[in-house]
């Protein structure tokens, strides 16, 4: 499931495990520190800042060519471009440094981080289990083209990996990422890009695309937002990545930058599985 809804807020499901781990680590470490009259808040903040900076820097370095034409976009973390392992390594290095400097921090930091890591790993395992038992194939939802012709989404794949973007013309992040996806559609002939408008009329969708001068293939309409509900995508934009066998291998909530899309497409092509017939 791409998103988890908490009241009026939607969160990417894959963020819940690290967030839970972070909260447990801070909570347990703080509790143990409080009993021994030691504050670990400063150490935890240092670890978090180091993790965020390192994760972003490593991602930017990996995909520097994608940022070269717009260097300012390196600072725009709304694209979700982070290297998790670089962030984790940086946090652990800061924790080790803090423990080396102050012996009284070692116990609360060690116990807090151990508990947080266990919660993180357990959360990831539960998420993988939920994904494996939920809708991991392209949903057979009836959609229509801009000309009104009915289309079943799986029929568009034709044995190719497929990227399904859920968007609406009133959504500023959707408009911000549309040029990135449009360029990728023209460039990546081996991947099927599908743009499924959520909840709008033919006139609204066509008017926006025409005014913005987007020449897109595979623009579909979902006026009842059935696809979004079927996929558990409660926020726009949401982009889903299916391999050639029609299996969901990744998803992204929020706007994609050139770099984050390049990372997703590289992973999609690396982990691609051909369609199998039974």
Offer a concise description of the structure.
The chain has nine helices and nine strands.
Beta-strand portion reads 15-25%
Query: Which CATH first-tier class of the largest domain would you pick?
Result: Alpha Beta
Number of DSSP-assigned strands: 9
How many strands, which pairing sense, and closed or not: the largest β-sheet? 7 strands, mixed
Q: Which fold name corresponds to the CATH topology of the largest domain?
A: Glutaredoxin
Structural class: alpha+beta
What is the percent of helical residues?
40-55%
Strand order of the biggest β-sheet: 4-3-7-6-5-8-9
Spell out the helices and strands N to C.
Answer: EEHHHHHEEEHEHEHEEH
Q: How would you describe the overall organization of this protein?
A:
With 278 residues, the protein is of the alpha+beta class. It has two domains: 10-133, no CATH class; 142-270, 3-Layer(aba) Sandwich (Glutaredoxin), CATH 3.40.30.10. It is built from nine helices and nine strands. It has helices at 16-35, 41-62, 64-67, 84-101, 106-133, 172-187, 202-211, 226-231, 258-270; strands at 3-6, 9-12, 142-145, 150-152, 162-167, 192-198, 219-222, 238-242, 248-253. A seven-stranded mixed sheet has the order 4-3-7-6-5-8-9. The longest helix is centred in the middle third of the chain and has 28 residues, at 106-133. It is elongated. Residues 5-10 have low confidence and may be disordered.
